[in-house]
Amino acid sequence: MASVHFEGVGKVFPDGTVALEDFELDVADGEFVVLVGPSGSGKSTALRILAGLEDATTGTVRIGERVVNHVEPKDRDIAMVFQSYALYPHMTVQDNIGFPLRMHREPRPHIRERVAETAGRLDIGALLARRPRQLSGGQRQRVALGRAIVRDPHAFLMDEPLSNLDAKLRVEMRAYIAHLHQRLGKTVVYVTHDQVEAMTMGDRVAILREGRLEQVDAPQALYDRPATLFVAAFMGSPAMNLLRGRITGNGVAGATLELGSARLPLTKGAAGLGDQEVIVGIRPEALHPADRGAPALEGRVELLESLGSDVLAHVEVDAAGVLAGERLEAAREIYGGEASPTRPSSARVTARLEPPVRAAVGESVRLGVGPERLHFFEPRTERALAAG
User: Fold this and answer.
1) I need a labelling partner for 231 at 20 to 30 A (CA). Which of 40, 215, 316, 378 fits?
2) What confidence tens digit (pLDDT) does each residue in 11-51 have?
3) Is a pLDDT exceeding 90 seen at residue 353?
4) Is the pLDDT of residue 355 over 70?
5) What was the pLDDT predicted at 327?
């Protein structure tokens, strides 16, 4: 096994496109780290640089203690699993799995032994005589994993390996790969655009945006304590509700959050933020039906989505909203002291509620939220300020 280290890695393509900028990441020996982000964030480029399929423009890449910037891919002792299964259609499952060993001129008895052992780990021992066209998508992905495992490499690199599978099979394969990592104990660097995969599979998750690392931490820590507005909006399904508000008050009288017409009391810790405009983040599960007379967000129910165990209520409130990923041009005008005609006067928030939901579509509802479950972000920098 081996650790993986990116040290100030940058990548600029010949056309001037900056794919990575000063990328720093340390992956411990045996750790499962997920690189996640939207399309164009640089996650696949980072993986390809680690694999040797792309050259870094700047910085250093190490596997263990060895600098591998100029080491050929075949000599890095890593195995890569691609989005496409990349199986040879004319070969049997046994020959596909054993192909890397044949390329290294391993003895045939050793190849047969290693293939049988690997197929047993993956529960595909009964499929060794079949060809790829005779397999399901999940079986093909296991064969692709087997071809990587059979070499017993120092680290596994996986580039969106589940994106071609249907939803049910993705759930099964997520659990399978996570369990396989526990059994093998190998270092895994896994790329995905799916934040659910990131949350459920990784020991740590690194979130990239426009070629830069936004935050890296344990999945639950990213969800509970996002460092930036982008991370807050990206992690979670349904996404965090983002609203524009203002904190008023002081440490003696207590702080209040103004969200449209709503006035919500805050904890003493929030009073230290002083009077200022903020972006407020509220997770859907933090909202709940408010008691009569209690401070609340009031709005009209626009849509109810029943998921069986809970209901997603989409409610129009009179607080100004923020779109995920929006660069807040209108907000910058507002916070610079100028009124902006483009500022929205209402926003739709999502609440995850327990059934039954008493209000129907078109009716008014009052939603409460505990002050300790609020997230605050500075509008210009988009950095987290503090939890309420």
Assistant:
1) 316
2) 999 999 999 999 999 999 999 999 999 999 999 999 999 99
3) yes
4) yes
5) 40
**How far is the CA of 127 from the CAs of 175, 221, 379, in angstroms?**
21, 41, 56
pLDDT at residue 251, as a whole number: 54
Average pLDDT rounded to a whole number, residues 110-134: 91
Q: What is the 3-class SS of the chain, one letter each residue?
A: CCCEEEEEEEEECCCCCEEEEEEEEEECCCCEEEEECCCCCCHHHHHHHHHCCCCCCEEEEEECCEECCCCCHHHCCEEEECCCCCCCCCCCHHHHHHHHHHHCCCCHHHHHHHHHHHHHHCCCHHHCCCCHHHCCHHHHHHHHHHHHHCCCCCEEEEECCCCCCCHHHHHHHHHHHHHHHHHHCCEEEEEECCHHHHHHHCCEEEEEECCEEEEEECHHHHHHCCCEHHHHHHCCCCCCEEEEEEEEEECCCEEEEEECCEEEECCHHHHCCCCEEEEEEECHHHEEECCCCCCCEEEEEEEEEECCCCEEEEEEECCEECCCCCCCHHHHHHHCCCCCCCCCCCEEEEEEECCCCCCCCCCEEEEEECHHHEEEECCCCCEEEEEC
Q: Which of 66-80, 200-214, 246-260, 360-374 has the lowest mean pLDDT?
A: 246-260
Select the more confidently predicted residue: 345 or 259.
259
